[in-house]
Write a structure and sequence with these properties.
Layout: H1 2-24, H2 30-43, E1 48-55, E2 61-67, E3 77-81, H3 89-104, H4 109-117, E4 119-123, H5 128-131, E5 173-177, E6 183-185, E7 193-195, E8 206-210, H6 254-265, E9 269-275, H7 334-351, H8 366-373, E10 377-381, H9 394-404, E11 411-417, E12 427-432, H10 445-460, E13 466-477, E14 480-489, E15 509-514, E16 520-523, E17 527-530, E18 538-546, E19 549-557, E20 561-569
Parallel strand pairs: 3-4, 3-9, 9-10
Antiparallel strand pairs: 1-2, 2-4, 5-8, 5-12, 6-7, 11-12, 13-14, 14-18, 15-17, 15-19, 16-18, 19-20
């Protein structure tokens, strides 16, 4: 009987383990994602809330999960994004996996202390319309929402969609045999089609198109399918007017506007992490020195620390404090470059990932918008990639990686089909399967979620944090006292990014004194600005005050947290 019970228990445990592992080794569709979000909110009501910011043209909710304790919106905030680009399904898993992991660890002393000091805002997927194509009966790498657009500017909407010509549920490529063709088979891997290189004496023998039919007879294939506008093309920085999937104007989409409204309303956010195609963690951004440019620190335009400018000359909140050529920045600033390098090194150390490919930065992307226009520390990573040498064919490199790692289900063999646009020519469908080069096999999700969770927690511990140092009271006689102190940033991150110092969406730090009784200030101001403090940097202040009694001192801003102390003049 005991043996039978033991066998039954082990069998049951094995089933539970199998179910759990299966759930972890699978990408989450929209319905599953929403179920997971609701479960987190229900299981951790004291720590976690979720709300919908908008409903997309495709009828899907864009959700933000807020995680923290106490006065959440008056502590340094970190925003974490998945779904920056709809084809990058991995981002959804990493963002949602972070939320789940930190809540599960919330009783540990480390995470409990962190949640007392930092608020996390997690956006599991800001491109839910596009992401669902991964789970649809017809799969193709979609990056745009469900809004109707005229992509090819012919005054018709969605008249040239994708067609599955070999009935495998995947949109790959078609190659058409033609002596005038511009493509040939790669010498490194015959499965891959590459442009013929005349400089090497090569001539093409194929034309290559996206799998489909030229419905509108403009000699283009699938150029105007269902949808849409890409979230990652619809931002204001370096926006491309009339760009493909860019929208009619910047922030034209309801989900883009809702996300940006949320960010602009939350002044406590000091850093954003995005899981998407842009990358400044594998390869950090580099400053470009330019004489007379915005590379010069805005601090040179400001009064000395602890001094207050003459009446009427205090810069308005967010007013540009640079002049002439200094009004626009187009590369990362020097002190922000230092932090980017530090965070990048930490990413390599914790995740063990190496050999980042060259990052692409299309117009209107989120990573650059977050730094240059929102003025926050901005980090982005695809989180997974295959090794590829520069100037080498990426498809060849991927197939080599797939063969070495036994990824068998990534290529559709070239198979002859009948094509109405090429009735007299041999036409074949095939190629690398959609999503395969962007998203890893599902069995890697657990490890990737764990590593990226550890990384964000480690970086969050470096948040800006103020403290008072060397608080001192000197009795000068005749009921006069000199009060002096330092405000010190004991964090690694500066109190705001250098780019954010000239941004109207960054709160100005202040220090203020609240007197009691009939005390009067003989020198120094009751309220003063605290300039941006780098990590481990201090600002010194002093006042002459007439009269005994208690003085309450408050310093900081929502993005650094507020600190208070009291001293007695006696």
């Amino acid at each position: 009987m005991k043996i039978s019970l033991k066998i039954l228990f082990l069998t049951f445990a094995g089933v539970v383990w199998s179910v759990c592992c299966t759930a972890q080794d699978r990408y989450s569709d929209y319905r599953t994602m929403m179920q997971k979000i609701n479960t987190l909110s229900g299981d951790y009501p004291a720590l976690c809330t979720s709300r919908s910011l908008a409903k997309t043209a495709g009828g899907k909710e864009v959700i933000v999960i807020t995680i923290g304790t106490g006065d959440k919106e008056n502590k340094p905030g970190i925003a974490i994004f998945g779904g920056i680009e709809g084809s990058h399904i991995l981002g959804r898993e990493l963002a949602l996996g972070f939320a789940s992991s930190i809540l599960k660890e919330s009783e540990s002393s480390e995470i409990k202390a962190l949640l007392g000091k930092v608020t996390f805002y997690v956006f599991p997927d800001v491109s839910p319309d596009a992401a669902e194509q991964f789970f649809a009966g017809l799969k193709y790498e979609r990056i745009f929402n469900s809004a109707q657009t005229d992509d090819d500017r012919d005054f018709l909407n969605e008249e040239d969609p994708f067609e599955d010509l070999n009935s495998d549920g995947l949109i790959t490529l078609i190659r058409v045999s033609d002596p005038a063709g511009t493509y040939s088979e790669s010498d490194e891997d015959k499965r891959v089609m590459v442009p013929a290189d005349l400089s090497k004496g090569q001539t093409g023998s194929f034309f290559v198109y996206s799998e489909g039919i030229d419905n509108d007879k403009d000699q283009k294939f699938n150029e105007d399918g269902p949808g849409g506008v890409s979230f990652n093309r619809n931002l204001t920085y370096n926006y491309e007017e009339f760009g493909i999937n860019a929208g009619l104007y910047p922030v034209s989409e309801v989900e883009t506007k809702a996300v940006l409204d949320f960010l602009f309303d939350h002044f406590n956010i000091y850093v954003t992490f995005a899981f998407g195609p842009q990358d400044n963690l594998g390869q950090p951004m580099r400053a470009t020195e330019r004489s007379g440019s915005a590379q010069t620190s805005a601090q040179t335009q400001m009064p000395a620390q602890g001094q207050f400018p003459p009446t009427g000359q205090m810069p308005v909140q967010g007013q540009m404090r640079m002049t002439g050529q200094q009004r626009k920045i187009t590369s990362i600033l020097n002190s922000d470059e230092v932090i980017n390098k530090l965070v990048s090194d930490k990413y390599h150390e914790i995740t063990g990932i190496k050999g980042a490919p060259a990052s692409r930065t299309p117009p209107g992307n989120f990573m650059e918008w977050s730094y240059f226009h929102y003025g926050r520390y901005s980090f982005s990573t695809p989180a997974w990639w295959f090794p590829a040498e520069r100037d080498k064919n990426a498809e060849v490199a991927f197939l080599k990686y797939a063969d070495e790692n036994k990824m068998d289900d990534v290529f559709v063999p070239w198979t002859e089909i009948k094509h109405p646009d090429f009735p007299d020519k041999k036409t074949e469908a095939g190629g690398i399967k959609p999503f395969a080069t962007i998203n890893p096999p599902a069995e890697k999700l657990g490890e990737l979620v764990s590593n990226n969770y550890k990384f964000i927690v480690a970086i969050a511990a470096m948040h800006p944090e103020l403290e008072f140092l060397d608080v001192n009271v000197e009795n000068k006689g005749d009921n006069i006292y000199r009060l002096s102190l330092k405000v010190h940033n004991k964090g690694i991150f500066a109190t705001c990014s250098e780019a954010g110092e000239v941004n109207m969406w960054t709160r100005i730090m202040r220090i203020s004194l609240e007197t009691s009784g009939s005390q009067k200030f003989l020198s120094g101001q009751k309220t003063q600005r605290i300039q941006r403090l780098e990590g481990d940097q201090s600002a010194e202040f002093s006042w002459l005050i007439n009269g005994k009694g208690s003085i309450k001192i408050t310093a900081g801003a929502v993005n650094t947290g507020m600190i208070t102390t009291s001293v007695e003049l006696k």
